[in-house]
Every structure is written in C-alpha cells, then in structure tokens.
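Feature request, filed as a ticket because there's no other form

It would be nice if the structure record came with a short human-readable summary line next to the tokens. Right now we just get the raw output. Example of a typical job, pasted below so the devs can see what we mean:
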Amino acid sequence: MEVNLPVSQVIAIVPTFCPDPDVIERLNAVSSQVSEVIVVDDGSPSSFEPVLAVFEAAGHTVIRHGANRGIAAALNTGSRKALDDRAEYILTIDQDTLVPPGYVDACLKVFDSVVSATNLGVVAVDRINDAPSIPPRRSPEGFGLVEEAIQSGMVISARCLGACGLFDERLFIDCVDTEFCLRVGDHGYRIAIAPGTQIAHTLGERAPLRPFGIRLASDGIMRTYEYHGPYRRYFIMRNNVDLWLRYRNTRRGWVLRSIKREFTPTMTTIGSGPQRFRQLLATLIGVAHGLRKVRGPMTKRVRILLTGRA
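Raw output as currently delivered:
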C-alpha cells in the first residue's frame, strides 16, 4: 500500500550533547527521508560550536540550549518547533543512531495501514543492532504492539503528542521514553512495530565481566556486559523507582517486570565494576532520591560524590 502522506509532513528531532563530527553523516542519512532535521544541542561547551556550525552549513536547523537541561527538554524544544512548522509526524533519533534508507517510509506505511479504531500513536523500530523486538500482542491488522519502546527511531503522530503531552522533563535522562510510552498507553493510544526495520544504536559501553575482581572468560574470550557509569546508574535507579511508585496501583504487572529486568544489570554493575563502590553509592542514592521524588538534574554535591568532578 502506498503512503498517502508526503515527506514534508515528517520532521526529525536530534538532541545532541558534545557531538562528534561523525554526527553529520547520520543527520544527512535521515535528511532525505524528512522535510526538516532539527538539532537541539543541550548545552555543549563552546568548543563544540564548530561542529554545530557544520550542521547548520549542511542545511539543518540548530537550536542551542544555554545549559544542559536533559534529553527530555531537548526533545520538547524540538517537538515544539516541529509542531509550529506543521509537522504531522515527528521522528526522534539520538545523535549516535544511524537511520537506514527507507526507514521513515516503512513507519508511515504502518500508520497508513491501520484503521482509526486501532488508535495508533507511535511506530517504533523492529530491531536494534540485530536484536529483535518481541511484541506480546498484535493489532487487528497484524502489526506487533508493545507497551514500551526505545525513543530513538520513534515516529510519533502530532495527534498523539497533542493528546498525551510531551516528554517528562523532570526525569532529565533515562526512563524518559518509558514514561512517555506508558502515558501514551494510558491515553488509549497504541505503539506498533514497523516490521523489518532496524537501526544501529549505541546502548552503553561494554565492560569486562569480573565479579569481585574475578575475570570470566569463555573459550578464551573475555566475557563482557553492558555498562553504564555511576552518573547514569544514579538516573537509571532514581527514575525507575519514580515510575514504579507512579504505576504501583495501575500497572502492577509492568512494575514487577521492570524490577525483575533491572535487578540483574544493577547487581552485575555493583559486583563487577568498574568503580564498584561508586556504583553501589549511585544505586543507593538513586533509590533514596526516587523514593523521595527528587527530580531534575543531579545536584553538584551528588555529582562530585559519584564522579569526582564538580
């Protein structure tokens, strides 16, 4: 089935922070699929101004935040600009995401193929770095439906944004996409997977798996795991606890699944390192702040404690 919507109705939003020069290749890769690419730089130091100037010289819109306000704020700044520019669909992608040719068309075909009763609000990517999504349900048209999806690669209808609201800036980073997806579901909208689509996306560093200093290898190859530093670990724990409290009465099944999903990586990070003590500290402070509903950016005191930097 052909897509009825012209490409001029889709605008891409790319939040950046300290972007490397290679980002221009990723911006150019998506620009041919949309009418406009809006880059929202979230308070990068002035030394990155030459990189942002390259983005502008390539014809992309660049909006600069004077300070680091978090990915949710950057997404919202871009979303407001896109809606002002009469976008009917918004594509959100991270600065390290490579969108392949035909990706936007594939997502729009899903929107174009569903009936109004399906109430589709978001289309997300099928595979990330070859790892497939496993939709638990299907729409009447046969598309996989999920409860939550990664923000990078989302195509969101303006109608959905208008009904559900923008991203929650209080979370700053981490769990921003999860909270948005759960809220979309609470408003009766569905999130579908665009079959056959794939993006290349960085999901954190890889660190050697060495519980309590013991190196683990398989067939002579060092085993690794997905690692986030203490700074990110704090937000991961704080914001997950925040959402568990928000949804403890209305989405008990999701809360239990989310706790189970976070338990292993958290324990692995604390036990394996690097920076095992700071990982433990980040986890404990994050949980405490989540219970106290502390939101927004990390305080200077906590940042020094977890990173050693002011």
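Something like this underneath would help us a lot:
The two ends are 55 Å apart (CA to CA).
Residues 205-307 form one domain.
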